[in-house]
Amino acid sequence: MLLSEVLDALAPLDGARIVDGTFGAGGYSRALLKEGARVIGIDRDPTVAPFVDALTREFPGRFAFVAGPFSELDALAGERQVDGVVLDIGVSSMQLDQAERGFSFMRSGPLDMRMGREGETAADLVNTLSETDLGNLIFAFGEERASRRIAKAIVAARETAPITDTLELAQLIEKTVGRKPGAPHPATRTFQGLRIAVNGEFDQLVGALFAAERILPEGGRLAVVTFHSLEDRIVKRFFDQTKTAAPRSRHLPYSAPVEACWAPVRKAVRAGSAELGRNPRARSATLRSGVRTSIAARPEQAAGLGVPGFRRGAA
Hints:
Ribosomal RNA small subunit methyltransferase H; rRNA (cytosine-N4-)-methyltransferase activity; DNA polymerase, domain 1; Rossmann fold
């Protein structure tokens, strides 16, 4: 997504060492390598192995891969010098296209959604959370206005039998809220909310942003592509410290402006008509990027970044 724009944001690339924190099928890594960069790929999904092997053979000595969560990219990169970091947030096309992974509401498959194949599945959440917790989750992480109705329908349906199939859940949601012609599938936001919860995506994103801030030297570049407003808000506030600084009363003595850890590369970039023609999934993609300044890295914290909250048992 936004490949040429990402390359521009990370330039110059010839001889640079770049961390591709969300390797996936290796699209960014391959493009970076073709531009002359040295790349460290990171991913927690074990199914990326064939793509790793292909790049290792094609670019010997210039590509390395480390398995793990991108929130730990500074530790995973080790002592290597790093000039840039790229992050492509959310589910990959590769994962959506594999019905057995349970990410897509367009294909029948197990209601899984785990990127790393560990921990609770989406089916676990759908079949064990209380109606209140399920509604809160879908609203907070999916921004679904019909979250209460959907949660009520799910709880009623699972009394007959557990919900374990993606199409079964998608059809239940469509039956509950209806479907308007030309509108996105009514299950889109519910599936988004479940996926985010299963994979702890907001915690991962915050961790990755601050890991990049720690590992990049002055002049290092960070490019982040997001696919919905919740992610984009976090990234926007991370780069712009005026958004996260504590408000000050005009009656207090003057204090110097907050010294920024990042200087902007360019304004937020969205997919143009040419890319949308090639890849309709890019319609919601947004690229934000920054250049590291000499200011010391901040302590890692989610406060002020607008991270949505969900807590089990909350009213």
